[in-house]
Amino acid sequence: MIRPGRRADYRWADYDDDALLKLRLSSLRLRLRDSLVWPEVQRLFDELDRRGFRFRPHVWLAEDWFSPDAAPGIAIPFFVAHPRLRRLERTIMGEVEGGSSIWRLRILRHEAGHAIDTAYGLRRRADWRSVFGPGLSRYPRDYWPQPSSNRHVLHIGHWYAQSHPTEDFAETFAVWMQPKARWRRDYADWPALEKLEFVDSLMDEVRDAPPLCRNRAVIESLAQSDLTLGQYYKQKLRRRWDADARYDRWIEGVFVSRRERPRAVRASRFLREIEPQLQRLLTRRARMHPYLVNHAIRDLILRVRALDLVLPASRRDVKRRVAGLVEAILLDILKRDRENYAL
């Protein structure tokens, strides 16, 4: 097999960012089977095999992660397919959605839930609607999640299961793909367990059946895109959700602008360095759910990167103030949610 990134295949791998941004997406000529994400695709298929499914979603490279309503397949973004493209994505966007093997597999399980929903027409079933809601309803322009809710599983982030009934199902399916003992233990005291048990029963019913929708169409494939990478990122940055500016005053009380200390350590780099310590400290001391802690830290990293902030002093002097900042943000989230989200 030809390895991804070999000069004979991907000469653009040696381009600098400016040259790379001038290329059209279609001219990248990426091959999914030679890409970084292919091992996770194979693992997803292995997991479906172990679960006894006859159905396999078809997969292709596109501009973003999605599973179309018209075809039970999975589109995978180009920027996770090659190390050079992953670096470009991180440089421009601050992070790579699916940048690690574990993260890619979590998203693939979620998208597989959508594909199975489409393949078997699950959202049209009365029993499915009674558990998850009206799957044919429009997606809201915005949704206001309740971080303390235990009626939804926690999987890919930002309480996405709360955004729409079909996302609720896809997230529940992704958690269900884990060993049964794990999700029964993790959600033992949550109403979300009833959804997992429903999915467990429903999958027993459909896994051996031939899919009702057999459409193998490839929607919005990368090979059909006329956008340059520069145009793609211009549009993506315009669409991007801007981190909540509510905490900017607090953040700027801990960090300073790069203009003040041009050679100081980047705040985003420092936060990534101490992220494991913050997670352990706040989960233990403030008894915050790890999911909520991770959410707050991740958004803080993106915000300090956007503001181009740096450390005002040594790491040791700043670490305690950062812990207090994250804890204050967490408590404010809970106060606005008006419910208790402690462990």
Written description of the protein model:
The chain has 343 residues and is mainly alpha-helical. It has 13 helices and four strands. It has two domains: 196 residues, no CATH class; 93 residues, no CATH class. It is 48% helix and 4% strand. The protein has a two-stranded parallel ribbon. It has a two-stranded antiparallel ribbon with strand order 3-4.
Brief rundown of the structure:
Helix content is 48%, strand content 4%. The protein is mainly α.
Biggest sheet descriptor: 2 strands, parallel
Q: Which residues sit in consecutive blocks of at least 5 with pLDDT less than 50?
A: 1-8, 337-343
Give the % helix: 40-55%
Structural class: mainly alpha
**Strand percent estimate:** under 5%
Spatial strand sequence of the major β-sheet: 1-2
* Inertia-based shape: globular
List the helices and strands and how they pair.
Layout: H1 17-21, H2 38-50, E1 58-62, E2 73-77, H3 83-93, H4 101-120, H5 126-132, H6 165-176, H7 180-186, H8 192-206, H9 229-239, H10 248-252, E3 256-257, H11 267-285, H12 290-307, E4 309-310, H13 315-337
Parallel strand pairs: 1-2
Antiparallel strand pairs: 3-4
